[in-house]
Every structure is written in C-alpha cells, then in structure tokens.
Amino acid sequence: MPDKNPLARLEAYSDGIFAIASTLLVLEIKVPAVAPDAPLGELWRRLADLWPSYLAFVLSFGSILVMWVNHHNSLRILQRTSKPFLYANGLLLLTITFIPFPTAVLARYIDTRFAGVATASYAGYAVFTNFAYWIWAATMRGPVYLVRPDVPRAELTALERRTWAGVPAYLVTGIVAWWLPSVGLGLLVALWGFWIMLSVGSTVET
Amino acid sequence: MPDKNPLARLEAYSDGIFAIASTLLVLEIKVPAVAPDAPLGELWRRLADLWPSYLAFVLSFGSILVMWVNHHNSLRILQRTSKPFLYANGLLLLTITFIPFPTAVLARYIDTRFAGVATASYAGYAVFTNFAYWIWAATMRGPVYLVRPDVPRAELTALERRTWAGVPAYLVTGIVAWWLPSVGLGLLVALWGFWIMLSVGSTVET
Amino acid sequence: MPDKNPLARLEAYSDGIFAIASTLLVLEIKVPAVAPDAPLGELWRRLADLWPSYLAFVLSFGSILVMWVNHHNSLRILQRTSKPFLYANGLLLLTITFIPFPTAVLARYIDTRFAGVATASYAGYAVFTNFAYWIWAATMRGPVYLVRPDVPRAELTALERRTWAGVPAYLVTGIVAWWLPSVGLGLLVALWGFWIMLSVGSTVET
Amino acid sequence: MPDKNPLARLEAYSDGIFAIASTLLVLEIKVPAVAPDAPLGELWRRLADLWPSYLAFVLSFGSILVMWVNHHNSLRILQRTSKPFLYANGLLLLTITFIPFPTAVLARYIDTRFAGVATASYAGYAVFTNFAYWIWAATMRGPVYLVRPDVPRAELTALERRTWAGVPAYLVTGIVAWWLPSVGLGLLVALWGFWIMLSVGSTVET
Predict the structure, then answer these.
(1) Contact A46/D at CB under 8 A
(2) Are B49 and B85 in contact (CB under 8 A)?
C-alpha cells in the first residue's frame, strides 16, 4: 500500500510533541507572591529571584529546539518508515515529553544546598535522552534500511556518531555536576552550544 | 464537493490530541519538597520515591503511542470520511484526552492500601477506551463504506477483531486487579507488549 | 502572490487550538484525596463524587468537537482568505480557548447552591461563542467574498442562519438556567444533540 | 537534497507553539472560591472580580494572534530556510512560549499597588519579544538570502522596519507604565490595535 508521503503523520505527531513539551515548561514558573504592604521594588526583586526558573526554561527550551532541528534534518534523508522506527521515535518522544520534570527539579534546587543533586539528575536524564536518540538513529539502518538511495552511507555514519557522543558527554557532566554544580551547569550550556555548532556545521544552508 | 485529501484535517486534529494527551501526563508529576537541612541524599530518595508516577507515565504514554500507531495505520486503508466516522473519531479522542486522569489516580494510589481500586479503575477505564476504539472501527464499514476498494475485506475484519479483543481483556484485568493489584499491573504491561507485537505483526515494514 | 493552499496554515493553527482546548479540560479534574485509614470503598465513592467534573468535561469536549466539525466543513467551501476573516477566525479561536474556564466553574458549582449562577454563566459564555461564530461566518461573505464560485449562495445563507440561531438559543438557556439549573443543564445537552443532528443533516456523507 | 516544501515543518512546529502558547493562558485563570453560605450573587461578583485575568488573557491572546498573522504572511515571501533562520525562529518561539508568565504577573498585580511594576515588566518583556522578531526578520536577508526572487526588496525592507518599530515603542510604553500604569495599559492596547491595522494595511486581501 504505497503512500504519498509516508513520513507526514510521523512528522506531525513529532512536531506536536516537540512543540508542547517546549511550551509546558513555562507552566512550572509560578507568579511570585508579594505582601500587600511591601515596598514597590519588592516585586522586581521577587521577579529577579526567579532566575533559576528562567535559566532552566531557556536551557530546556534550547535543548528541545536543537533536538527538533536535528530530528527535522535527519528525517529529510529518509524515504520510508518501519515499525521499529515508529516505536524508536515514540521512545525518543517519551524522553522529550518528560523533560519538563527534570527542568522543574533543576529550577527548584539550583540555588540551594541540593544544587549538585539537581544538576546531576538533569545531566543524568540527558544521558537517557541521548541514548534514546542513538537507538532512533540506529533503526534508520536496520532491520529495514530507511535512508534514500542517493544519500551517501558516510552521512548516516556521521549522524550515528553524533548521537553516540551525547551519552558519554552527559555522563561525565553528571559526575562533575555532583561535586561542582556550577561547573556542571557550565558544561550543560557549553554542550548545548556545541550541538548547535555541530548542527550548523560548515554551512549555514539547510 | 471533492477534496484533495479528505482525511488531512482529521489526521491533524487527531495527531494534535494524541500529542497533547501524551505530553500533559508529565504535569501530574510534582517536584518533591525537601527540608532545607535534610541530608543531600534525601533529594535522590525523594526522586526515587516518585517511581509510581514514572511507571504510570510510561504506561500511559506507551498506551497512547500504540493507539496512535494503530490509528495511523488504520487511516491509511481509508479513502474518505463520513459524519458518523467523524463523531466516532471524536469519541475515541475524548477517551484518549481523559487518560491523564486515571493515570494520575494510578500514580497517586499504587503504593497505598488503595492499589486495588486504583489499578481496577485504570483497567476499567481501558475497557471504555477499547469500546470507543471498536465503535470507531465499526464506522469504517457502515453506514458508509470508507475503505479503499483495493483493500481486502479480510484486513478490515482483522482490524475489527483486534479492537474487539481489548474489551474483554481489560475487563478481566480490572477484576483481577481489584483483588491482586500487582498481578493486574503486570497484566496491563503484558497487554501493552501484546498490542505492540500485534501491531508489528509478522513484518517490520509499515 | 498566489499560494498552493492559502487555507493550510489557518487550518493547522485552528486545529492546534481546537485540539489543545479540548485536552486542557482534563487538567481541571483533580485526583481525590482519601484518608490513609479510610475503608477501601472510599476511593470509589470519591471518584464517583467527581461526576460534575466528568459531565462538564464531556459537555465541553463535545461542544468543541461539534464546532470543529462545523469549522472543518465550512472551510471546505472557501477558496481563499482575507485579513478580516483571519482576525474573525482569531476571535472565534479566542472564545474556544477560554472554554476550559466556564467549564471549570460549572464543574465546581453544579452540585452546590450556586448551580443556577454556574449554569447561567456557562450558557452566557456560549452566547458569546456563538456570536463570534456568527461574525466568522459573516466575514466569508464580505468585505471579500471567499466562497468558491461553484458553491450555491443558498448554502452560505444556510450556514449563516445556523450560526445565528445559537445566540438566542443560549440566551434563553441562560435565563432558564438561572432559575432552574437542572432544566438549563438539560437544555445545554439537548442543544448539543441538536447541533450534531444539524451538522449530520440529511446525509451521513461529508 | 531538494525538498518539496522546505518550510512545511517549520510552519507546523511554529503553528504548534503559537497555538499552545495561546491556549495555556487560560490555565492561569483560577475558579474563584465562594463560601458555601454566601449570598448567590457572590459568585457573580467573584467572577466579575477576575476582570484583570480576562483583560490580560485577551491582551496576550491578541498579541500572539497578531504575531501569528505576521509570521504567516512573512513566511509566504520565503522560498527556503537556512540554519541561522531556523535558530532565529527558535528564539522567536522561545519568547512567545514565555508570554503566559508576564501575562500571569500582569493579571495578578494590575489592580494592586504594584500595577506600575507589573505593567512595566509586561511592556519590558514585549521589548524583548520584538527584538527577537527583528533578529528573525534580519536572518531572512543574511547570511543566506531566503526571499523569493519575485518579491521586491522594498517589501523586505518594509517588513524589517515594522519589526524594528516595536522595540522603541514598547520601551517608551514600559517607562510610562512604571509611573502611570493605566496609561501604560492604554498604550499596550493602542499598540495592539496599531499592529492589527498595519498588518491589514491598505487592503483586506491576504
């Protein structure tokens, strides 16, 4: 049963999940309560005090965005789907859907004594996400080969290597973060910049 | 009034609902509160204590994913829609939209004395979902026959039988779960694996 | 600047809003709290006590579904858009987006002394929704005529009359509901059934 | 690797975010609590007392709608994407996703002593949004020129000037709002009307 575009609904469902997971992040940021007789500047101060929430929001939104750009570019080299690929895509989406939770934990505890645990758990969760991403890329190669015939094998290998790199990178980040939370946080931001650069590559064209 | 693709908006609306219902599940998982002077390991422990929420999240996300894959594959054998089918699809989406609620009940009570009630109500709700799914499949056959002429009747019959099997399976699971919650939970997971295998079938191609 | 399908993104944006407004309704239903030493049946009782929430959920989901079916069918007679139509569509979507709020008010107060106020405000809000729907249909006719040339004028007139009927119908329902809440609620359900029948019309085909 | 429509998924992801950000706004409006023995009119009064929430909801929904109409119309002059444009679009979506938060702050404090701070922070946030919008428009021109060859350069220049105007306009509004909150609020509404008129322009056709 041939189809005009066998990837269209997969894209629609995935785009929906990417979009919603990004958007739900804002629900974790609560309006600060100020005493009615507090000085006016108090509301500014309370809004500024929410910086961990803003930081976590930007970090997670940015991570989901990079993953969306990669997902978007990767699907373009495919010509078909398989059932293992549909389920691997589902697993990837599951891990993305869950991101608001470690983000909320990070935002809640980043400026407390528990910063190490919070940052390590965030990085630990990223290990899991990257593992799902790697499985997803692997099901492009087998059991059914999904890639368009005009795409060189080297491109697929490069994609798989890129997804593989994430697992050890976030594992190390998690261990560092446990002892030195702010270094771990810096590594998270640096890795994010690294993925962006990697996805932009040597060309700015898509 | 002919249309290029009469199913396109039905798919878009359905994909939106499937995607959002999956994603809202995470909002039910709340960041644990830890006393400021608690030992550092306390946050890990509290995060681990949330296992019923994680389990319920994965179970429901997985169920919605399987239903999405089936919905996706079923729509591909159709060539048109009818108003009864639009409303039957609406009823199916209603039942899917509601899934975050029984999921939250399951997560809240699975490790309490009320585990039996929570698991039974989750399975009971699945009876309802599967019933809606069966009605949905039935409206493909009548009052207007929606299936493409090149699709063998046997394929539609197989689809209907599959949707029909869900109702008694979850009914039994619900009754068992009422007395033996962990057996019921095991059955829920087993049924989920069974639907995945059934949807993959003898071929990994879509 | 011609476009392949000038309505495609309007549909995507509208479908997104319809889908999300339907799905957010479930977030208003909270998991009941049960005392740890309560009899097991207590959780069943508490789940059953949430009937106003279930009823409001089904009523609002159903209303949004009927509006989606009508929106879907109405767009099919158009061949283009205009800026007034884009903004009228925006106003319609605004009213649909807001539906979770009167729904939550209805669910919260339907079984209290305030049932009359809650039902009347729900019906009153439906007046507003139907008014937006009527404006939306009016901008199909002017200032730019958007309907395909092969569609008879009578069909557009019938559509406008149908949207116009909603305003007085919900106005009367609101006034009745203020004095007799359960009659008002019955009228809401009856009107919903009426719109479904009207949209199905004399044919089950789309 | 050519693509049939290189903008299709960008539109789908963007439409998803616009739609969800609009819809989440309603979650910030909470059902008022009324004492069980209060006079019946009390519920009406409490519903009326929520006017700041309704106002903020309409203001933000309207702003997102205008941005969506502009986004929609701007994408129509493009023939391709570039990676900088994908990330600039991501930044724009990030700012839109965040809108429910300043909206909730505005709704919470508009009728308190803190009205100036709340309105100023809302306008200040709009400065940021408009800045992202301007970057977005700039990446249409470079480093890769994305506009269709048949679109006159003047049209792109007009688009950029329009996006540029937003930054100083909201900056002034923010400063005024700090001292005179209701004037600031009036300016916010006036600016919104102004963008609508600007987007409708001299023609009602799209």
Answers:
(1) no
(2) no
- A147: region left, alpha or beta (phi > 0 left; psi from -120 to 50 alpha): beta
With an 8 Å Cβ cutoff, are A94 and B69 in contact?
A: no
Q: List chain D residues with CB under 8 Å of A12.
A: 12
The pLDDT mean for chain C works out to: 85
Radius of gyration of chain C (CA): 20
For D31, list phi and psi in degrees, rounded to 5: -65, 130
Q: Is C72 exposed, middle or buried (0-12, 13-18, 19+ CB in 10 A)?
A: buried
Q: How far apart are CA C103 and CA C119, in angstroms?
A: 9
Kindly determine whether residue D20 and residue A25, on different chains, have CB atoms separated by under 8 Å.
no
CA A151 from centre of chain: 26
Give the nearest partner residue to A16 out of B19, B25, B203, using CB atoms.
B19
* A115/chain D closest Cα distance in angstroms: 24
Among the listed residues B119, B125, B126, the one whose alpha carbon sits nearest the alpha carbon of residue B52: B119
8 Å CB contact of C27 and D27: yes
Q: Which residue of D has its CA nearest to C143?
A: D204
pLDDT band at D187 (very low <50, low <70, confident <90, very high): very high
Beta carbons within 10 angstroms of residue D39's beta carbon:
11
Determine which of A30, A34, A43, A155 to mutate to test the interface with D (most D C-beta atoms within 10 Å). A43
D13 neighbourhood in chain A, CB within 8 Å? 15, 18-19, 68, 72
Work out the burial of residue B4: count CB atoms within 10 Å of its CB; fewer than 13 is exposed, 13-18 middle, 19 or more buried. exposed
Tell me if chain B has a CB within 8 Å of the CB of C200: yes
Best CA proximity match to D134, nearest among D189, D104, D171, D179: D171
Closest CA–CA distance from residue B127 to any residue of chain A (Å): 24
What is the structure's pLDDT at C125?
93
Characterize B20-59 residue by residue with b for buried, 16 or more Cβ atoms within 10 angstroms of its Cβ, and e for exposed. bbbbbbbbbbebbebeeeeeeeebeebbeebebbebbbbb
- Name the band, by pLDDT with cuts 50, 70 and 90, for residue B29: confident
Letter string b/e over residues D145-157, b meaning 16 or more CB atoms within 10 A of that residue's CB: ebbeeeeeeeebe
- Confidence class of residue C201 from pLDDT cuts 50, 70 and 90? low
d(CA C174, CA C183): 10
Tokens representing residue B85 in the block: 């089918």
**pLDDT, tens digit (0-9, with 9 covering 90-100), for B163-203:** 778 889 999 999 999 989 989 999 998 988 888 777 665 45
Is A128 an interface residue toward B (CB < 8 Å)? no
Residue D88 has pLDDT above 60, yes or no: yes
Stretch A159-188: mean pLDDT: 88
Q: What pLDDT does residue D203 have?
A: 53
Q: What is the pLDDT of residues C9-56, one digit of tens each?
A: 788 888 888 888 888 888 888 889 888 888 888 899 999 999 888 988
Residue type, B199: S
Please state the rounded mean pLDDT for residues C195-200: 74
Q: With DSSP H G I counted as helix, E B as strand and the rest as coil, what are the percentages for chain A, rounded to 5?
A: 75, 0, 25
Q: How confident is the model at residue D153 (pLDDT cuts 50, 70, 90)?
A: confident
Nearest residue to C102 (alpha-carbon basis) of C25, C13, C45, C182:
C25
D-proximal residues of C, 69-98, CB under 8 Å: 80-84, 86-87, 90, 93-94, 97-98
Contact yes or no for D69 and C82 at CB 8 A: no
In this complex, the residue of A15, A27, A206 whose CB is nearest that of residue D81 is A206
D183 touches chain C (CB under 8 A): no
- The dihedral of CA D27, D28, D32, D33: what is its sign? positive
- Structure token digits, residue B64: 């919605």
Nearest CA in chain B to C39: B114
